[in-house]
Design a protein that fits this description.
The complex is a heterodimer.
Chain A: H1 15-35, H2 43-46, E1 48-55, H3 61-70, E2 77-81, E3 88-93, H4 100-114, E4 123-124, H5 130-140, H6 149-167, H7 184-193, E5 194-195, E6 199-207, H8 209-237, H9 240-264, H10 270-300, H11 306-338, H12 344-378
Parallel strand pairs in A: 4-5
Antiparallel strand pairs in A: 1-3, 1-6, 2-3
Helix pairs in contact in A: 1-9, 3-4, 5-6, 8-9, 8-10, 9-10, 9-12, 10-11, 10-12, 11-12
Chain B: H1 3-24, H2 32-42, E1 44-45, H3 47-50, E2 52-59, H4 61-82, E3 89-91, E4 101-104, H5 111-121, E5 125-129, E6 135-139, H6 141-166, E7 172-176, E8 182-188, H7 194-201, E9 206-216, H8 219-225, E10 234-239, E11 253-258, E12 263-264, E13 268-275, E14 281-287, H9 289-301, E15 306-311, E16 314-320, E17 328-332, H10 337-348, E18 356-364, H11 366-420, E19 423-424, H12 426-455, H13 460-492, H14 495-529
Parallel strand pairs in B: 1-19
Antiparallel strand pairs in B: 2-8, 2-18, 3-4, 4-6, 5-6, 7-8, 9-11, 9-12, 9-15, 10-11, 13-14, 14-17, 15-16
Classes of the chains: A alpha+beta, B alpha+beta.
């Protein structure tokens, strides 16, 4: 089985179509960044408090808002998170406070506000860790144990917590569910001393403004160093124009990816930046493969114009390019579809990045090389010396 | 089969075994559960997969500097008074630079005496003269830096002691590179950090000072009673409710106490929770020999005065000094059993040399951790299967080469992680998935080239040779650029992102070995078995 045997497509001839395609997406992205959603920053960069809550029933936004309003939290941003069936809500506190202590209070307030049906003197089993459950059991001693109480109750507490967290997603709906996980005396004691709220806090992210600023700086530095490193490496292995072409290509890819995030209003977090840096590496790889073939062909095809050489090189590597892109795309698609909500931004960046990165090596990098050469010829300068194989 | 080939095959098998050991160690038993526990003891799960809390704290180093300069001011005052040198005032004019001390109104003739005092008694300070009989002292910059850095390392030690006492397993407490005087604390398995945070944050600065005046109901009242301005060696502190065993139930009372402490937390030998004579929980402390002596001197000099037990700059208790006390004392009142235990833990771990402020807190609940692992593994399996099947279908016989190389790649990658004790995070699992995708690129490059050479009429052996040698340079180029990218991510990233950079780097390094060396060996072995003129399955 073989695709693209003896392909002979005139890629350079289609460069205006490519340019139009790129322009449409770039402009759409930039418009969105400027006028619509802006650049959606994750909590890592803008600072703030995010509390991810899972309910045992489909969450009622207005009830949640009312509960939060009662404790003085106005205008929280509520967002449904994950699959509809998972009943998860993301509560995002708009952060204007600068004090880190106030950020922390936000989380406590949210938890207190949501525990609406709390009977006095009882703790919430859905929001308690295994160590607390163990202390409770040690106090009550429902199984009347002696010296081995510490170890046995520790195991029971862990079994209850594991059952709740690993099989029930963190929220128990009734104490009966515990019958399979723990001893009946223990279950009876727990039903007596605890109540079950209808939610469980899955994840909390609190980032103070100072850290937010530091992380922003780190992200920018990492990106700048990456690009600089690329430019240096390519300038060293090829002619400098190849380096420029690669940098422009990478810039194009990043712009379109960030534009896509803006259009879909997906927050950009630290892991998204990691994904973007990875796709810069990937796009670069792709571009290098084509450049390598061009360099090889320049030595072999001495009588043909650069445009023809470039076209031939792209066609020769087309099979490999499409295959690699396809295979890598398959794997990141698996990540996007099955990898869960936490990696959603990360996998979105990779999915878009792989597609655009592959496209850009053919549609942007190669035409730039040829355009530069043609410009130099038009200017009456010597065509740039064909690069000899270095390294 | 020729000898070099045999050696190469042995090398591959040897590598396989080495890295399998890296993953599993020697498992206790070979059941499913036994293998899983063998893996998890060698490859650690990050917080985002295990559940736990990640905190970034900042040490308020200026607190420590303040303590030092306060002592310097007291010493200076004492010395100047002793030698009957007149001065107008000694102040610390700049809160942002707490080591700056300004002495005003020192007459010119006392200048050399003053400078002698500074060199003798305050050697860490540099003195310079300002306008009109004013002198400015500032701590020597290198010593100032030392003091600040020492505050941070002491804070780390103290926090470590406190967390150990709480029984958190495998915590991480270390200096955080990103910002000034920041500490990173990671507490696996702690999904309710409130109590831990409180314990960590308590400066637990225990001091016993002389209670000069009080209780007053408001700050203004206190200052007014002192004639509008506090004397320079006194300070105003709030009291916790009922500190004097009387006073205002609702509001706060204020005391005027001496600025310098007679005895401080450094002199504490041990603190124990206990019960006072009414059976209410309290904390008893014992002082060291040196501290005990100073306490004895202080209490002897101040019989019938009052002392104040000050914790974290709040007056906890005020008592009359009836007779000299040597080395024991107690803090009582208004604590339940847990609070007494926590306080004893905090006092025993030593005082924090400076306050800490929380800058960042992330808590991943265990249910999210479990879900993340499930999702990550699922995605990895699906991705891997898709690639393995495709390679077999598209490249037929050679596809087996690629698949074997890929599987070996995965084993080497996980083995690396086991040996280096690397931490697996959720982005790290994504890195494994990405390694599969990018790694298979090398195989594609080689196989495509081989197909091309075969089309151009070369023999299978020659085509394989050409394919590998032409593709090698490109493979190196692409791997180097991606690894450099990953290295930058590792340097500039934090926990989960570093996990991603780590798996990507190890995976690509492993790929250089498997996609080129292993794959070539399998081709060579296959070619060796073929009859002349038999086609290569690719």
């Amino acid at each position: 089985m073989e695709f693209f045997r003896d392909a002979n497509i005139d890629f350079l001839g289609k460069k205006w179509y490519f340019l139009a395609f790129s322009l449409v997406f770039s402009v759409a992205g930039v418009m969105s960044m400027l006028f619509w959603h802006g650049i959606p920053l994750g909590v890592d960069f803008r600072g703030g408090t995010l509390v991810y809550v899972k309910f045992s029933h489909p969450p009622n936004d207005s009830a949640i808002r009312a509960a939060l309003d009662r404790v003085g939290i106005k205008n929280p941003r509520l967002q449904s998170y994950g699959a509809a069936s998972s009943n998860e809500v993301l509560i995002d506190l708009a952060q204007k406070e600068n004090s880190e202590q106030q950020l922390d209070q936000g989380k406590l307030q949210i938890i207190n506000a949501l525990e609406t049906n709390a009977p006095a003197g009882k703790q919430d089993l859905n929001n308690t860790g295994a160590p607390s459950i163990k202390s409770f059991l040690l106090d009550r001693n429902p199984m009347h144990l002696g010296l081995d109480a510490d170890q046995k109750y520790g195991a029971q507490a862990q079994a209850i917590a594991d059952y709740r967290d690993k099989t029930q997603g963190g929220v128990l709906a009734s104490f009966d569910q515990l019958k399979t996980a723990a001893d009946p005396a223990v279950v009876a004691s727990i039903s007596d001393g605890y109540f079950l709220s209808d939610f469980s806090v899955r994840n909390v992210e609190i980032v103070g403004p100072q850290v937010g600023g530091q992380l922003r700086k780190q992200a920018i530095l990492a990106t700048v160093y990456s690009l600089a490193g690329m430019l240096v490496y390519l300038g060293f292995r090829f002619e400098w124009i190849y380096g420029i072409a690669a940098v422009v290509t990478v810039f194009h890819d990043t712009l379109i990816t960030v534009g896509a995030f803006s259009l879909t209003n997906t927050p950009i977090s630290l892991t998204v930046i990691a994904a973007i840096l990875t796709l810069i590496g990937y796009s670069n790889n792709d571009t290098i493969v084509v450049f390598d073939r061009i360099r090889e062909n320049i030595k072999l095809m001495r009588r043909e114009s650069l445009a023809e050489i470039v076209n031939r090189s792209i066609n020769q590597t087309l099979s490999r390019t499409i295959l690699t892109a396809g295979l890598t795309f398959l794997t990141v698609l698996a990540l996007f579809l099955f990898g869960g909500e936490v990696l959603h931004g990360f996998s979105l960046a990779l999915v878009i990045g792989i597609l655009i990165g592959t496209y850009s090596s053919i549609a942007i990098a190669a035409p730039i090389l040829v355009a530069y050469q043609e410009w130099r010829i038009e200017q009456g300068k010597r065509a740039i010396a064909m690069p000899s194989r270095k390294g | 089969m020729n000898k070099t080939l045999t050696w190469k095959l042995l090398l591959i098998v040897g590598t396989l075994l080495v890295f399998v050991y890296g993953i599993f160690g020697i498992p206790g038993n070979f059941t499913g559960a036994g293998l899983v526990s063998a893996i998890t003891s060698r490859i650690h799960l990050g917080l985002d997969l295990r559940g736990g809390t990640h905190l970034i704290l900042q040490v308020q180093v200026n607190d420590a500097v303040n303590v030092d300069s306060d002592n310097a001011v007291a010493t200076l005052r004492e010395q100047l008074n002793q030698r009957k040198i007149k001065f107008d005032e000694i102040t610390k004019p700049d809160p942002a630079n707490p080591d700056h001390i300004m002495v005003k109104g020192l007459p010119a003739e006392s200048r050399s005496d003053f400078l002698n005092i500074v060199t003798d008694r305050l050697p860490e300070y540099d003195a310079s003269s300002g306008a009109e009989n004013t002198y400015n002292l500032a701590m020597k910059p290198s010593l100032l830096n030392d003091l600040k850095n020492k505050a941070v390392s002491q804070a780390i030690e103290t926090i470590r002691n406190r967390i150990d006492a709480l029984g958190v397993s495998e915590p991480t407490i270390q200096e955080h590179g990103l910002g000034a005087y920041q500490i990173l604390v990671q507490l696996p398995g702690v999904d309710d950090p409130a109590r831990v945070k409180d314990i960590m944050q308590s400066t637990a600065m225990l001091e016993i000072k002389q209670a000069l005046d009080g209780p007053y109901n408001t700050q203004e009242e206190a200052i007014a009673a002192k004639g509008g301005v506090l004397p320079p060696d006194a300070m105003l502190l709030p009291a916790t409710a009922n500190a004097s065993g009387g006073g205002d139930a609702s509001g706060q009372t204020w005391y005027v106490v001496s600025r310098v402490a007679a005895v401080s937390g450094k002199d504490l030998k041990h603190a124990d929770p206990g019960n006072d004579q009414n059976g209410a929980p309290n904390v008893r402390f014992q002082l060291s020999n040196d501290g005990g002596q100073r306490f004895y001197n202080f209490t002897s000099a101040h019989v019938n005065d009052r002392l104040a037990v000050v914790l974290d700059n709040k007056v906890r208790e005020v008592a009359n000094i009836k007779e000299p006390i040597r080395d024991t004392g107690e803090i009582s009142g208004h604590m339940d059993e847990n609070a007494a235990k926590d306080l004893a833990t905090i006092l025993n771990s030593g005082a924090l040399p400076a306050g800490i402020k929380y800058l960042e807190e992330r808590t991943v609940g265990p249910s999210l951790g479990a879900d993340s692992i499930k999702a990550g593994v699922q995605a990895a399996i699906v991705g891997m299967m898709a690639v393995l099947i495709f390679m077999l279908v598209y490249y037929r016989g050679a596809g087996i080469n690629a698949d074997v190389a890929l599987l070996l790649n995965l084993i080497i990658l996980l083995g690396f992680m086991g040996y280096f004790g690397a931490v697996l995070t959720l982005p790290g699992i994504a890195g494994v998935i990405l390694t599969v995708g990018m790694g298979v690129d090398s195989n594609v490059l080689i196989f495509e080239r081989i197909r091309e050479e075969l089309r151009n009429g070369k023999t299978p052996a020659s085509a394989v040779d050409q394919g590998f040698s032409h593709a090698w340079i490109t493979i190196v180029d692409t791997h180097v650029t991606t690894i450099v990218s990953a290295a930058i991510l590792f340097i500039f990233g934090t926990g989960p992102v570093r996990g991603f950079a780590t798996t990507l780097t190890f995976g690509l390094l492993a790929n250089l070995f498997t996609a080129v060396f292993v794959s070539r060996v399998i081709f060579d072995w296959n070619l060796g078995r073929k009859q002349r003129g038999e086609a290569l399955s690719i």
